[in-house]
Design goal:
By secondary structure, this protein is of the alpha/beta class. The protein has 15 helices and 15 strands.
Length: 485
């Protein structure tokens, strides 16, 4: 079923769309068409969504139907709208342009490169002591085969305790340990998504999540996030679920990657209720849940509102601890965990026992480690924001209340061009289109604050110089792709 946006919803997205007064005032229909194109370019209005009828939008905007008709006609002429008599009008991009996110990018060993493509921290000092302690625990496992498809019991109990402490009572039988959060997502999709199944995701969203969905040949629809503090438009999100009735929805409610938004409790509750009513299962990515900043109080976990086993939570240790420790997990009902374990046996059997033992020791020291991480990230975030304000004041950022990334709105649709040019100056970037499906988001750039403060200041200085030169020089068009995590 095609998703549709109502007149009142589109009016709210358009905001102050009217043409500016003055000598060069453009007609209202041109301003309306330009505003719709801007929503498409930002990813706030998905492609393939049916727009309201001309009369409905005219009533919502309190303008004449003639103005809406002229705006729709201009959108058709520019290739942003396709219409069929009696069936309506659908959003599109000129020339059916699409940019896929494969997620398969190769890393560089250039130590002089300031890599802002990877949103992850270096290992904490507690990692080495934890590794030494894990080797001392290892002998008691050496008498067995070493295969534990759901994970060793110590780690499953530790992860379950973490959920219980967050207000979501959890048993070890509800946890399956995986080789990272990405592996957890892949296994859940293998079990729950038939090829070609429908999935709703946010726009923007995590590129490697899109890659996993593409591997399953999923039919992806998107819900556009706003650039302000609100993030999710609850009415539009729940409306997309009711209209599309997707098999799954993949969402990142805690310090969303890349925008940093935090979903409020009220919307979480409504989301779970709506998903149950339409038969949609929710995959909730909690990669950043351990990293609230500025004393932000977390809402209850999304699964706390689940009474029908509709919510599967995935998480891991890459963001608060270290990406090189490939430990993730799935929290679901005990029967779902058993089905996931059976599906896993045909993929990789089990996660390494030694890595799991390291994770047990790190989780035992979690309060101290995570508190240090939060202090570090808060200081680095503030340094990055100050540097951007000083060197690139035309860029707009919303200060995230947690996580590790800023989502910067640039002064033009230059994200990919800026990334190509910055590579020559020793800065690797994750341009906005990597976080979407359709070649949109060119006015946005994800900037993690995981590098040391001095490196962040240096990176912003280089970006400012590149931005100054961008309109004045011809840059090479092809670059080796880079890891975005």
């Amino acid at each position: 079923m095609t998703s549709q946006v109502r007149g009142s919803q589109l009016a709210r997205l358009l905001g102050q769309w009217h043409a500016l007064p003055g000598r060069r005032r453009s007609p209202d229909y041109a301003a309306l068409a330009a505003a719709v194109r801007g929503l498409l370019a930002d990813g706030r209005l998905p492609l393939g969504v049916r727009l309201p009828a001309e009369r409905e939008l005219a009533d919502a905007l309190r303008i004449s139907r003639t103005t809406v008709s002229a705006a729709y006609r201009q959108l058709r002429e520019t290739g942003h709208l396709a219409s069929r008599r009696g069936a309506g009008s659908w959003t599109m991009l000129p020339g059916t342009h699409r940019v896929a996110s494969s997620g398969l990018w190769t890393p560089s060993d250039d130590r002089d490169m300031l890599d802002l493509g990877i949103a992850a921290l270096a290992a904490p000092p507690q990692l080495l002591p934890a590794a030494r302690a894990a080797t001392e625990d290892l002998p008691r496992y050496l008498g067995g085969a070493g295969y534990h498809p759901t994970g060793i019991i110590e780690l499953r109990e530790a992860v379950a305790r973490g959920y219980t402490e967050r207000g979501l009572p959890t048993r070890a039988e509800q946890i399956m340990v995986t080789s990272g959060t990405q592996h957890a997502l892949d296994l859940v999709l293998r079990l729950m998504l038939p090829p070609g199944g429908g999935v709703l995701v946010e726009s923007p969203t995590y590129p490697n999540g899109l890659a996993s969905l593409a591997a399953r040949r999923a039919r992806i629809t998107t819900h556009g996030l706003s650039t302000d503090d609100a993030g999710w438009d609850g009415e539009l999100l729940l409306g997309s679920l009711r209209q599309g009735r997707p098999k799954l929805a993949y969402l990142i409610p805690e310090f969303h990657n890349p925008t940093g938004h935090l979903m409020p409790a009220e919307l979480r509750e409504r989301l779970v209720a709506t998903a149950h009513s339409v038969g949609t299962d929710l995959i909730i990515d909690e990669s950043f849940v351990d990293l609230p900043l500025d004393d932000t109080v977390l809402p209850p976990p999304t699964a706390a509102y689940d009474r029908h086993s509709r919510v599967i939570s995935i998480g891991g240790m890459s963001k608060p601890y270290w990406g090189g420790l490939r430990i993730g997990w799935v929290r679901a009902s005990a029967p779902q965990v058993q089905r996931l374990a059976a599906a896993r046996v045909g993929v990789d059997m089990a996660s390494p026992v030694l890595d799991q033992l390291v994770a047990v020791h790190l989780l035992a020291d979690a309060p101290a480690i995570v508190a240090d991480r939060r202090r570090q990230l808060t200081a680095q975030r503030d340094v990055l924001i100050d540097a951007l304000a000083a060197r690139l004041p035309e860029w707009r950022v919303t200060v995230p209340r947690g996580g590790v990334t800023l989502w910067a709105e640039l002064d033009g649709p230059i994200s990919s061009a800026l990334a190509r040019a910055a590579e020559d100056e020793g800065v690797r970037l994750a341009p906005g289109p990597r976080f979407g499906l359709d070649g949109t988001l060119e006015r946005f750039l994800r900037l993690p604050f995981t590098l040391p403060a001095a490196d962040l200041v240096e990176a912003v200085g280089r970006l400012a110089a590149v931005r100054y030169d961008l309109d004045r020089a011809v840059r090479p068009q092809w670059r080796e792709p880079a890891v975005i995590a």
